[in-house]
Amino acid sequence: MAIEPVTEPGSGGALRLPRARIVPLSAPPASYTAAVERYLTGAGIAKSSARIYRISLTTWEWMLAGEPAPTGPARRGAKPPVFPVAAIDNPALPEVLAELAAARADEMDADTVNRELSIAREAIGWWQRQGWIDGDPTIGIERRPAPPDRTKALAENQVAALWRLDAALREKTQWKMLYESAARADEVLCLNVEDLYPQSKRGRITAKGGATEWIHWQSGTAQLLPGLIARRTRGPLFLTDRKAPAGTPTLDVCHETGRARLSYRRAEEIFEENTRLLANPLASPEDIEDLDGWTLHRLRHSALTHDAEGGTSTPMLLARCRHASVRSLERYARPGVEAVARHVAERDPAARRKH
């Protein structure tokens, strides 16, 4: 059937094509809550991520209903108002939502606000593709600029606490390798068994831009690798716990075990979950599930910062991080708070007189 162009009112006679209506793939759920659950299941969100997604999307349910989302202790046990998913297309909603989102952004840190916005837009996009809704009421909401984080490098006692965690061998090996090699997480996760040279404590990786380069590790990683590799001679180094699903690329499957290569997203989720208590030592057990742990990138950042604090030369730091520009070292060569405190204490005249 031909689509007849229509004249846009107030456009001086300009013609436009009407927006095509997407035919729903399935009957839309009546409530927003049900739509969230359909999204978490249908979009393939991992169980470990579903908790964070559900919390964020529930926050948006309060605001979609025209109410500010509760924070702190008031959030525990609070149930948002029932909101019909079809009401997302209410033309008055974007303005109301923008005001509530702006008020929330004034109370929360930028990273949390931006993460919640990204999750909402992912869900809305999925609902649009199902044909359940047409619009996106978050369209006028902008991401908040996040100030630079000066605490990305973990203190050495925090790294020591990480090694004491009761984690699986796969995670222990991965975390040790990331810290000792100062490599990027995606590079390490792409390692194959045949890329390793255990006697030389090095591995061959494909770096940014496709170049083949070396990463080097220390005794901590070297002691863990044999147990992780077992009798395998080829295939992905870090594997999932289950058999690879059908359609997994051959290069990402271990032919000896049938398991798939561990994904970056899953590795990040596991690290974040395991480090929540370390990242929030003063949090109560009731609140810890709503808080974030550390990111894998902080291991690389910490390793390079600790190298710089220990007096490692600029050429060696460049070789370790495999950046071409000295300027790129600025983010890593900034001494951490413990190093600055130690520096000040060592130069305290009163402290020197006591000795």
Brief synopsis:
Helices cover 43% and strands 7% of the residues. The chain is mostly helical.
Distance between the termini: 93 Å
Biggest beta sheet attributes: 3 strands, antiparallel
Shape: globular
Order of helices and strands: EEHHHHHHHEEEHEEHHHHHH
Computed over alpha carbons, the radius of gyration is 25 Å
How many helices? The count is: 14
Low-confidence stretches: 1-6
Structure description:
This protein is mostly helical. The chain is built from 14 helices and seven strands. The strands form three sheets. A three-stranded antiparallel β-sheet has the order 3-4-5, with no helix packed on it. Strands 1-2 form a two-stranded antiparallel ribbon. A two-stranded antiparallel ribbon has the order 6-7. A hairpin with a 5-residue loop joins strand 4 (202-206) and strand 5. Helix 2 crosses helix 4 (110-130), helix 6 packs antiparallel against helix 8 and helix 6 packs across helix 11.
Q: Descriptors for this entry?
A:
7% strand, 14 helices, mainly alpha, 355 residues, 3-stranded antiparallel β-sheet
Topology, element by element:
Layout lengths: L5 E2 L7 E2 L15 H11 L4 H18 L28 H15 L2 H21 L25 H8 L5 H13 L3 H5 L6 E2 L4 E5 L5 E5 L2 H11 L9 E5 L15 E3 L2 H11 L1 H4 L17 H13 L4 H8 L15 H10 L2 H6 L1
Antiparallel strand pairs: 1-2, 3-4, 4-5, 6-7
Helix pairs in contact: 1-2, 2-4, 6-8, 6-11, 11-12
